[in-house]
Amino acid sequence: MPRTMEVVPTSATLGAIVRGVELGCVDEQTFTAIETAWHKYAVLIFEEQTLTDDQHLAFSRRFGRLERGLMMSSKRLLAHLSNVTRDGSIADPTSLQVRFNKGNEHWHTDSSYKRVGAKASLLYARSVPDTGGETEWADMREAYDALDNKMQTWLEDKMAVHSYRYSHAWHGGLELLGEDDLARLPPVEHPVVKIHPATGRKILFVGRHASHLLGEDIDASRAMLKRLTEEACQAPRTFKHRWREGDLAIWDNRCVLHRGHPWPMDQARDMVRSTVAGDDLDNEWAEVC
Ligand code: OGA
Ligand code: MN
Prior knowledge:
Bound molecules: N-oxalylglycine, manganese (II) ion
Number of helices: 8
Strand order of the largest sheet: 1-2-3-13-5-15-4
Number of strands: 15
Strand content: 15-25%
Number of domains: 1
CATH superfamily: Clavaminate synthase-like
């Protein structure tokens, strides 16, 4: 007999644990319930999954078209966030693979350096360390609401410049892409205050790819964006998940920031992620279906 879906909210302003669902076989009615819960909680954790890559991709596609990898030659739809090498050994902490993923330890929203940012990310835990390696999310709906009126008004028409080169230069890993690939990632502009298309709520849209405010002093506005992010990502607006193998998290990049936490580098952490492209018919990063 199919189990019934149970949604258990966290004590933070976002996030819920979902039990009683097998993501490999979700019927229409259950999908609608998942989508409704996702809009309410912004981050859902599904426990005890056993997903093949194809099942992971198929479930992700129910939210929209997927994003392709950043390399021009790449048709890859799954990103591997892992310190395990192809031959199964633990990667050197100084390797490019590990350094590139280090950037994820700063608050960010996926693909905000693209003209159309990502809609959703679905991260699946294949192997997890005994300690550390948590992922944490912060609620940018509540973060906007928590700003004082003066700041809300000042930010209302501000645009931030988001840049892959900027964010990947200060934490390393820029060299993963060639000049051709980087040329397809020019700086882009996003409003600092966005309206969430499903809920109508105002969102503070910042994070590590946001370099500075358009038309403002670069250093001063960069410092301001950092301060806004730091103040936004505070309890009760944050929720930190300690992974178990078989957990899948889906989050809404349009209204949350996230970051990873470090773990002992002699232990394996192997995660795989699909990314749902932002809803835009001309999104140049979305797969062609
Ligand atoms: C991601 C990400 C953080 C983590 O998958 O986009 O930032 O904890 N992950 O691995
Ligand atoms: Mn990320």
